[in-house]
Amino acid sequence: MSDDRLLVGGKLVLPDRVLEGGALLLSGGKIEAIIEADGELPSLPRHDLGGAWVTPGLVELHIHGAGGIGFDELEAGPASGRGPDVAKAAASLRRIAAFLRSRGVTTFVPTLVSRERELALLAAAIEEAALPRSTLPGIYLEGPFINPARRGGIPADAIMAYDRAALDRILSLARDKVLLMTFAPELPHSGELAAALAARRILPCLGHSDASIDRDPLPAEPFSITHLFNAMSPFSHKEAGLAMLPFVDGRPFVELNADGVHVGAPALRAAARALDPSRLILISDAVVAAGLPHGEYSYYGKKIVSGPDGVRHADTKVLMGSNRLAPEVLRNWLAVTGAPIPSALRALTLNPARALGLARSKGAIAPGLDADLVVWDGNFEGVREVIG
To answer: pTM for this one?
Structure first.
């Protein structure tokens, strides 16, 4: 029995424009065709979207947790003295996948710092959870080969000097599920590290760094920049820190946290005007309290406070992450920069899909790609329906 159907009456956000009055033909879980406003519609079941925005599913490329679950705290504790409870951790991954999907995020990359126990448990839980790769493609590892002077919220015990044996052990613990790894390019052997990552099809990411782009080596391979402006040497008219790199070099993908807390509005507007929109990836860097009401939560047995100024440690007031998710990042980016909607959506869909190697199946409303679609209430304030 055919499952062909038409989506009509929506505002379709295509990679380069918004199509109103057109239609989407879906077949077998794929986008079969985009029909222009003046095109003839086949005689098929129709789903009228009532003027709602329709976008690809959003991608959270850099996310440490949400909905009360952190990727480094996937279990409340061992079920017995025999070690971590992988089944409990896998159930947590399934819950956070459903939580994010209800908010329009259909792909997410669990992000964590390099601690052996947490990394091994996450890798085992990913296998046990058996979520599709289009939903959970792999792991983003921040460190451990970073500059302690720019460690930001990364604990000192999750940092080490690079050597090949240490890298091999980390990737083995991760069961070869690492897709992205942040390191500081100014540290010894960074060129060897970048080449080793690229050989394993891991995207090298520059960050938590005090580099000077005039002095320190940059990868020859394709690479990315971890949360531009945060935890890195700054943009300066005298000393060209890592934050200046994407403004003078168009090669890397560029993560930018547009949650309204981590980077100020003037810097967001400068980035919107100057950076290549095909390389920009908007991120949330969300943590355990993201998507939940403001208030007090626990993280590693310590009290944290989620409020209008992000998620902070209760005792030190130090910012530890964001309580906002991709839809809020999108709305803030649009409000602050006035960016065109197709361009803004690319930074949360197609661009991260390209960085993850998923662009042949998702990331855009285009013929041949998965029917991975979100129908929104209002101007991206809420999710009416997820299709696919």
So the answer is: 0.95
